[in-house]
Amino acid sequence: MTDRRSPWWQDAVIYQIYIRSFADSNGDGIGDLEGVRTRLGYLKKLGIDAVWFTPWYKSPIADGGYDVEDYREIHEDFGTLEQAEALIREAGELGIRTIVDIVPNHVSERHPWFRAALASRPGSPERARFWFRSGRGPRGDERPNSWDSIFQGEAWSRTTDEDGRPGEWYLHLFATEQPDLNWNHPDVRAEHEAIIRFWFDRGAAGIRVDSAALLVKAPDLPDIPVHIAAGEHPYEDRDDVHDIYRSWRKVADTYPGDRALIGEVWVPDPSRLPLYVRPGEFHSAFNFDFMSQPWDAEAMSTSIQSTLDAFDAVGAPSTWVLSNHDVTRPVTRYGREDTGFAFARKRFGISTDLELGRSRARAAALIVGALPGSLYIYQGDELGLPEAEDLPPSVLQDPMYFRSAGVDPGRDGCRVPLPWSGSHPPFGFGPKGSSPWLPQPTEWASLTVDAQEPDPASTLNLYRRMIRVRGETSLRGKPLKWDQSFGAGVVAFTRGAEFLCVANMAGAAVPLPESHRVILASSDVVGTSLPGNTAAWLIA
Ligand code: GLC
Ligand code: CA
Questions:
Q1: Are residues 95 and 23 part of one domain?
Q2: What is the spatial distance between Cα 389 and Cα 408, in angstroms, rounded to a whole number?
Q3: How far is C-alpha 348 from the chain's CA centre?
Q4: What are the average pLDDT values for consecutive 10-residue runs of the chain, which has 540 residues?
Q5: Do 299 and 232 share a structural domain?
Q6: Whole-angstrom Cα distance, residue 506 to residue 236?
Q7: Using CA atoms, how far apart are residues 224 and 135, in angstroms rounded to an integer?
């Protein structure tokens, strides 16, 4: 592949494929590799530089595939390893790089190591690769420490011994089906370096590292202290975790062609995020601070500036993310009274103005598209899909829903299969008559790719133009400078002498400068004024 820009990951547009829900080639209701292959043309036309596949490995899918049974096998519902290799090649020929998702914090309970651990005695070498402990209390029936699962409930489950009696407990920061690995164990380290090589050898251009801040635990597994100094949480963001990524970086650097490591790093203290992208560690890391901001000019610009400062300080490019497979779709989130994102605030039945939300999500796309750094687009955001909020409870699968006893709707609503064509489900996601693994709302008829294709004002065409103009305008290397002349309620910045991005976050229209002409806008700009909840790109 010839390189227009190098290294590519500094300002790439990366499209996240949630493979189960992208396109189903054989009608079993589940998206697959062949479905992606037949839509490479769509991705090419969208103009993206790379795709990131959420886990496509063999897995019981207890947590959407983030419970991996075999990191070197493709899930049979998705296809085969040969197909994955061919897809990486074929995408590469179109100039689209592939990023795979590695889950190092935990494995599936069906992973051979965990099965071996369960079949072995307490204290055995097989159990040492995980965190097995005796319970507390006289009968050992209380969890070994106070840790809760990130999916709610306890972070410990008790095992049953061969004789049927209750045995040791094991740690799982996520679902019961996802036992945490012990990263102090040399096997764990060696195995993951081998897994990374395996995928780099197959042409992966990058690796997204799941739950990257959680791998290292305080060896004595203390209760969570009330006051915690930075780096001293018993499992979040501990200093030693960086040793792991320094060794991975060495592996990545042995490969030609700018292979990238991208960390999924949620840290309680955002000032610690840059530590993960220091020289010799990850190439980049997701920026969830910006993604969590409410629809508010000051909050957004503050987050943008602090992100740029933090990443600049270590010489790493920033990243911009509006959503992913874990969070509420922007069209829905921005249409609510509380427009920020926090897992703890997810509930059923929050009232939402989707039209308002869609205007804002379109404007937000132009904000992130104009910022320095790389841009992540979650599949379906380019169609302006809302969160599917009325999925019948019987189809829900996400452990977040079950572990919250049904209080948290979970993440299924942002994972509904894409609508491609036609006027009723499966909307071309699969062959006629097939039933997608999650039902699609019938209102999505107006949001299919085919429906949006001929409409110049559609969200799909806005995204296509945004990505094209972003490439043509050569914003690279041009720093962001705030333009304060628009007053409160507006996010405005220049990149270089000519390019100006103005986002009107408030309700009332604001005048645009006559020195500039609009080259792209998220909704109709009449004359020289920019309506509320609208963003525009201008050229001097
Ligand atoms: C990450 C993934 C999420 C998954 C979790 C556990 O946060 O994005 O989908 O549930 O890790 O692997
Ligand atoms: Ca299928």
A1: yes
A2: 12
A3: 22
A4: 68 98 98 98 98 98 98 98 98 98 98 98 97 97 97 98 95 98 98 98 98 97 93 95 98 97 90 95 95 97 96 95 98 98 95 98 98 97 98 98 97 98 98 98 98 98 97 89 96 97 96 96 92 97
A5: yes
A6: 37
A7: 17
CA of 211 to the centre of ligand 1 (A): 6
pLDDT tens track for 218-262: 999 999 999 998 889 999 999 999 999 999 999 999 999 999 999
Question: Which ligand has the minimum distance to the alpha carbon of residue 403?
Answer: 1
Q: Same structural domain for residues 392 and 273?
A: yes
211 lines ligand 1 (CB under 6 A): yes
Round to the nearest angstrom and report the end-to-end CA distance of the chain. Answer: 35
> Is omega for the bond preceding 386 within 30 degrees of 0, making it cis?
no
Residue 441 in any domain: the answer is yes
Helix or strand run (H / E) with residue 535 = strand 534-539
Which ligand 1 atom sits closest to the C-alpha of 67?
A: 12
Ligand 2 centre to CA of 300 (Å) is 40
Q: For residue 517, how far is its CA from the centre of ligand 1 (angstroms)?
A: 43
Quick check: is 387 in a domain? yes
Residues 483/494, Cβ–Cβ less than 8 Å: yes
- Choose one of 419, 452, 485: the last residue of a domain: 452
Task: Let me know whether 97 and 137 are in one domain.
Answer: no
Q: Which residues pair with 530 in a beta bridge?
A: 510
Using a 6 Å cutoff on CB, does residue 375 contact ligand 1?
A: no
- Residues whose CB falls within 8 Å of the CB of residue 465, separated by 6 or more in sequence, listed in order: 520
**Contact, 217 vs 131, CB < 8 A?**
yes
**What ligand has the least distance to the C-alpha of 35?**
2
> Residue 14: enclosing H or E segment and its boundaries?
strand 13-17
CA dist., res. 91 & res. 97, Å (int): 7
Instruction: Compute the distance between CA of residue 506 and CA of residue 462 in angstroms, rounded to an integer.
Output: 21
Collapse the DSSP code of 271 into the 3-class scheme (helix H, G, I; strand E, B; otherwise coil) and give the result: helix
Domain CATH for 337: 3.20.20.80
Domain that includes residue 508, residue range:
477-539
**421 shares its domain with 516:** no
Cα 408 to ligand 1 centre (Å): 16
Query: Are 402 and 500 part of one and the same domain?
Result: no
Query: Both 119 and 103 in a single domain?
Result: no
87: tokens are 């897809």
139 C-alpha vs ligand 1 centroid, how far in Å? 34
Please give the tally of structural domains in the chain: 3
For 349-464, list the strands marked E by DSSP: 374-378
Please list all protein residues whose beta carbon sits less than 5 angstroms from ligand 2, which is an ion.
24, 26, 28, 30, 32
Question: Would you give the distance in Å from CA 2 to the centre of its chain?
Answer: 27
388 and 447 in a common domain? yes
